Amino acid sequence: MPYYGFRGGIHPMYNKEKTANKSIERYRVNVGDEVAIPLSQHIGAPAEAVVKKKDVVKRGDLIGKSKGFVSSNIHSSVTGEVINIQNVPHPIMGSIPAVVIKVTEVTEEFTPIELADKFQENVLSAGIVGLGGATFPSHVKLSPPRKIDYLIINGAECEPYLTCDHRLMVERTEEIIKGAKIIQKELEIDNLVFGIEENKPDAIESFRKFENKYDFELIPLEVKYPQGGEKQLIKATVNRVVPEGKLPLEVGVIVHNVGTALSIYEAIEFKKPLIERVVTVTGAVKEPKNLLVPIGVPVSKLIEFCGGPIGEIKKVVMGGPMMGFSLFDLNTPVMKGTSGIILYRDSDLPNLNMHNCIRCGRCVEACPMGLVPAIMEQFALNEMYERLNEWHVLNCIECGCCSYVCPSRRPLVGYFKTAKREIMNIMRQKKNAGK
After folding, report:
1. Prior bond to 226 cis, omega within 30?
2. What are the φ/ψ torsions at residue 165 (nearest 5 degrees)?
3. For 334, which DSSP code?
């Protein structure tokens, strides 16, 4: 199958060289350490705590039960005693409830999940969500109401700095493929496709070795951001366009991240819940690393484990530089969607002094969704949300391409994020008023 590509996109400095060849290291907690495991680490309803203060929990024990269809289970990543259920820092919501556990024993054993007859129930039981950053509960995506003929496994990892997926693809190749084959078999999907960006030749080579054995197609992808965006990846690999306001299943496609496929393999094969993930710690840190981290470990501990910062740190980002979030508190815990921790000094950051729009059109050329950010910005500034809706702002995937290419440093994606929230609130209010 050829590479079809997608419109728009950008070519930022990728800065992956510090960690691209760093093997994954396990971050180990110590007796006496505290982890804070948030009850909301996914899109949808927060989990409901099923433990209380002074309870003793083992690694892998259920501590938060999914509340509703679009929700996910939460498990303890350590063995220890629950010392509190309290709010902890969160980069978007300010603070969220979490189960705080003091480690009493260091072990790699875990409490296995109980497997049911239904595949989707096992994925829910293991608390698996999309590990590419979106954190959509995987059992929901794996319950399509119609026939799916393409399963695409996303190995693009197009965000600058991040190499956690890259290392998984090199070090856990066959397990990722087995996880994808489990999904393919359970959902009776005809075709399995892996998409990996060409700046990861070692990962491509690792998968090529298994292409015939496991009957899948590997498509090397152009190095272009946001190549890993779901709609962009679908267009680039199978040349299908997801209609506006619709999901990939409308065109017979499901997309999963490589880390998600690996977690599904571990859940089905070893009954292992999602209690840890790989995180890239990089930027202005003495020893950049890819770390396998228990969920709930504070960001500050990871920075310390990597030798501490270099110089005076101006900004710390959770996730990638394009779609990640600035942290206001280094006690923020690692969550299921935490792909990276990036430290920046003042000298690492671009000059963000804002100027008037010069109508150059670069944002229009860069937008992978075909939007017109320069005009939409004026509606956003004037809170003209109905007009913004008419100009399809809800189609914005918040990739940040428009802000990146803007010579006037207009914070376009920030305006659109705010506008989308306002429009969704207005739509909810209208819906409730009509009941």
Report:
1. yes
2. -70, -40
3. P
Helix residue ranges, H only, 356-411: 362-366, 373-381, 385-390, 401-405
Tokens of 379: 């509606």
Q: Are 161 and 340 in contact (CB under 8 A)?
A: yes
Bridge pairing between strands 340-345 and 313-318:
antiparallel
Q: Which two tokens stand for residue 435?
A: 């009941």
Q: What token pair was written down for 395?
A: 């189609």
pTM of the complete model beyond 0.85: yes
127: closest CA among 267, 282, 286?
A: 267
**Closest of 201, 119, 209, 210 to residue 155, by C-alpha:** 201
Write down the residue that tokens 């971050």 correspond to.
27
Q: What are 290-341's pLDDT values in tens digits?
A: 999 999 999 999 999 999 999 999 999 999 999 999 999 999 999 999 999 9
On the 0-12 / 13-18 / 19+ scale of CB atoms within 10 A, 356 is: exposed
Q: Which of 310, 306, 299, 296 is nearest to 341 (CA)?
A: 299
Structure confidence at residue 180 (pLDDT): 98
Tell me: the pLDDT tens digits for 346-381?
999 988 899 999 999 999 999 999 999 999 999 999
Secondary element (H or E) of residue 197 = strand 191-197
> Residue 430's pLDDT band (boundaries 50, 70, 90)?
confident
Instruction: Return the C-alpha torsion angle 6, 10, 15, 19, nearest 10.
Output: -20
Angle between helical axes of 164-171 and 173-186 (0-180°, round to 10): 90
Instruction: Return the structure tokens found at 36.
Output: 């804070």
Q: What is the pLDDT of residue 435?
A: 60
Give residue 355's identity as a one-letter amino acid code: H
Q: How many residues does the chain have?
A: 435
Are the C-beta atoms of 41 and 336 separated by less than 8 Å?
A: yes
CA–CA gap between residue 197 and residue 203 (Å, rounded): 9
User: How far is it, in rounded angstroms, from Cα 400 to Cα 20?
Assistant: 23
